[in-house]
Amino acid sequence: NAGVMQNPRHLVRRRGQEARLRCSPMKGHSHVYWYRQLPEEGLKFMVYLQKENIIDESGMPKERFSAEFPKEGPSILRIQQVVRGDSAAYFCASSLNRYTEAFFGQGTRLTVV
Amino acid sequence: QQPVQSPQAVILREGEDAVINCSSSKALYSVHWYRQKHGEAPVFLMILLKGGEQKGHEKISASFNEKKQQSSLYLTASQLSYSGTYFCGTETQGGSEKLVFGKGTKLTVNP
After folding, report:
1. How far apart are CA A43 and CA B87, in angstroms?
2. Count of A–B CB contacts within 8 Å?
3. Are strands B84-92 and B100-101 parallel, antiparallel or unpaired?
């Protein structure tokens, strides 16, 4: 059973471009979480999704950021018109349900130049 | 809603013990503990659910005091491999089931 897969592992974008980060949860997992981490800092909650539904997006900036978890395919975190401050590591995690552990992917390191 | 971890950093010699605390201002449904090494993904250690319990994992164990809304992670006879940043994640009662992490405790184990 493959773990949580994130791609790409590294992404470089110029200011103003769009960034698309993908997360394939573990098989059978229907809960997906996205977190942002700056160097030497903690994991900042962004959004929590279940299949086809956004459950909690209280950590997402209101503009330029969006997330989805379609019925088929990976969860996508989309950042439009990226700025230098968006540079960070973005981790996703998946779980079977609220009673079980969440497993993290290896993260996508986004660099905006 | 972010849990508060203490201490922020700990330096140990191999074989020493450490306790990392995690507290919340809201009633908790669950507490999750993770360890992250530099440049890597967080790795799951254990989950404690509402009901006040203690769990063990080799020489690492944790307790969850539901009434005090606190959890503690106990590392005994520390090994060099225990070095890393430890995060507690909490899910609050009556919330959306989202998992929110504290700022982390950096543990360094020296020979």
Report:
1. 8
2. 63
3. antiparallel
